[in-house]
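User: Okay, second chain of the day. Same drill as before: sequence in, structure tokens out.
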Amino acid sequence: AIGLPAGFEFAITAVYLVLVYSITKPFGAAAQAGFGIGMRVVQAGFMPVVALGFSVAPVAGQNFGARLAQRVKDTFKDAALMAVGLMVMFGIACHFAPAALVSVFSKDPAVIAVGSEYLRIISWNFVASGLIFVASSMFQAMGNTIPSLITSAARIVLVAIPAVILSRLPGFQLRWIWYLSMGAVLVQLALSMGLLRREFARRLRFDAAAAA
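Assistant: Same drill. Structure tokens below.
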């Protein structure tokens, strides 16, 4: 009940990568390489937030099991602040020096151009993505990963369907997908925060019982 939805969430991400690679194929190997390098840079930069998320789930889960509602909320608040701080620093690096990051892996100007454009646009999403990851860990801590799966599926649908349609239009540019992704992540953030607030209201009603 907890593990399968979380696993499907990662599977959905794999579907997104396959879709983007298929759309970038007509643009040539340089475009695919630029996107691939950009993705690896993002994954590397997200490692601290991933580690933070792995810590959030057991800490919040222990307090949830101990029926300490305020500590569960405090865990989310503290983790969210740390995630925002980390993502702001990483976002600044990717926005203002993307070429330097991509050039570590390739010296091809075409590859650097695609990868730099990808990082510069996607960097606006980093704070939102960090908060989404922390929220996902909170859903795991409270024993309900369905909301996280719903928000991830919504993001993929919001990107996949318009991307396929736009890719068939004349004059299509890869940056259109990056902007689509940016908007979809913001929608996912709004859904995640709304559903997390709902879960807090439903599942953290044991302060009075704990005090008694």
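The radius of gyration is 19 Å.

User: Thanks, on to the next one.
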